Amino acid sequence: MSLLTVNIVQAGYEKEQAIIKDIQFSLKKGELIGLIGPNGAGKSTTIKSILGLMGNMEGEALFHDGEKYSYIPERPIFYDEMTLWEHLDFVAAVEELDEKEYQIKVNELLRVYKLHEAAHQLPATFSKGMQQKAMLILAQITNPAVYIIDEPFIGLDPSAVKLLLSSLEEERKRGAGIIMSTHVLDTAEKVCDRFLLINNGVLEASGTLTEIQQQCGLIDGSLFDCFHKIAEEQSNE
Questions:
Q1: Domains recognised in the chain with CATH numbers
Q2: Helix (H), strand (E) counts: the chain
Q3: In this structure, are residues 93 and 124 in contact, taking their beta carbons and an 8 Å threshold?
């Protein structure tokens, strides 16, 4: 079952100046898709188009049956004068979460991410790793069907990366689908089901690692090898 279907004909920040073109894919329940490509390739524009944040877009991104989604940006965003707990209460109120279920869920997540003692502190004072964990908790309390995550590994130490991946795996078991933009290709190769390789605003290759290898002509190549072959071919044109 598809949770999200994307058909972007073209999108950009200014009319008649498309940054991305012909991006089509779907996201299934329990699936993790890696969105990869060089800086400036169009990954952020693709994410913003899916979120409905691009004013100049031709095409559509449909979340089926009104499914909830959570977006986790590359740079964590918080209100300066609100504690983590106040952020959590705010999201719970906006989403009209059941109070009893919310309290159980949030306390469990604070325990898992080891942020219970920091719950009444300002996230603006947290380390990058703590802020990333806080964003994950805020995303998870709504039990979304889809996660859209932009560069989640930046600033995380190995133990935090392991915790993040474990949490995402649990969400996949629940049936959530995940789109994850990342430059950490060795990790992406291990955890993603499929890949979207975007370069110069177009979808150069897509599919499983085996399918990406075939499309790139590198039968035994790593994701890193395929990524760089496509980037080099484009730069030489």
A1: 2-68+145-236 (3.40.50.300), 78-143 (no CATH)
A2: 8, 9
A3: no
